[in-house]
Amino acid sequence: MIGRRLPASSSFVLARAGRRGLRALQLDPARATAQPAATRKSHKTVPPRNPAAASGGHRVRPPRPLDNRGLHGCGDVTAFLTGESRRLAPKTVQRVATALRSLLRFWHLQGLTGGPLDRAVPKAANRRPGLPRPLEQGQVAALLASCDQQTAMGRRDLAMLTLLARLGLRAGEVAGLTLDDIDWRSGEISIAGKGGRRDRLPLPADAGQAIAAWLLHGRPARALDRSVFIRARAPRSGLTAGAVTQAVAAAAQRAGLGAIYAHRLRHSAATAMLAGGGSLAEIGQVLRHRRAQTTSAYTKVNIEALRTLARPWPGALS
């Protein structure tokens, strides 16, 4: 049956629901029409093509090859997807499940399976992970203290880390900061955020002092642009978001804190504001969240504050 021409109706199903699924399952269209053979029941293992994410997330791997010769019943379908869920990211498992359902419907239409096995494909959960564990105030202090203020680059890194820790800026926002964005008279800073949005925030005193120290005693006089934070080596242009993140990681290593990146400081700043009595609306304004739902995720971090909202159990001793 391999290589035979499909009927028009089958070709339509394959074109509409199968081809993307075949690519997701690493299955060639010719193999998708192969006659089942009960003598083979194995899935070849393919090595991962992409390395693990630098942030320590799920390993990004392609799914294992699949053909209808290895599927003999509902148990085989469930076992296949369960096995893939142990090695793929949750979102990837969802895509594989969707592709698998489409492929099994096509095989059933062609009479290549004994029944509608697509109904045996389990749903793949993709729950949003919790917020990264925020740093304690002592850890943030150690991170800042690791910057050598006797050197130009140490003063630069201290200024960047202070902005990240105090205002919860993103790495790209720190990298994109220009000399024209700082209003020294009013003590404000203009931030170019996502989607071309620009917001003005109050500049904390310690952050302003750290920036001033860098500008007066560190920033190259012959910088190629008006970026606040400049590369340590030529070309003396503005830093990238990746360079800001690497500066945070290097400081964390010096402080003995392990792997810490810029965005974790953003969560730490929000948690510190919440612990200090700040409202969710105020935190949302500082972090420049567009939706209140995004800020509400921080409520599950402060367990002690949530305890005050719980009503006593009826009949419990006061």
Compact overview of the structure:
By secondary structure, the chain is mainly α.
Can you put this structure into words, describing what you see?
The protein is mainly alpha-helical. It has two domains: 8-120, no CATH class; 137-307, hpI Integrase, Chain A (Orthogonal Bundle), CATH 1.10.443. It has 13 helices and three strands; from the N terminus they run H-H-H-H-H-H-H-E-E-E-H-H-H-H-H-H. It has helices at residues 8-24, 29-32, 74-85, 90-109, 137-145, 152-167, 171-175, 205-217, 241-254, 262-275, 280-287, 292-296, 303-307, and strands at residues 182-183, 188-192, 198-202. Strands 1-2-3 form a three-stranded antiparallel β-sheet, with no helix packed on it. Strand 2 and strand 3 form a beta hairpin. It starts with 7 loop residues before the first helix and ends in an 11-residue tail after the last helix.
Report the helical percentage: 40-55%
Major sheet, described briefly?
3 strands, antiparallel
Mean pLDDT: 75
Q: Terminal Cα separation, in Å?
A: 77 Å
Q: Please identify which CATH superfamily of the largest domain we are dealing with.
A: Intergrase catalytic core
Architecture of the largest domain, CATH level 2? Orthogonal Bundle
Alpha plus pi helix count = 13
Structural class: mainly alpha
| Number of self-contained structural domains | 2
Classify the oligomer: single chain
CATH class of the largest domain: Mainly Alpha
Strand ordering within the main sheet: 1-2-3
Unreliable segments (pLDDT under 50, ≥5 consecutive)?
Answer: 1-22, 32-63
CATH topology of the largest domain: hpI Integrase, Chain A
Shape: elongated
Order of helices and strands: HHHHHHHEEEHHHHHH
Instruction: Tally the beta strands.
Output: 3
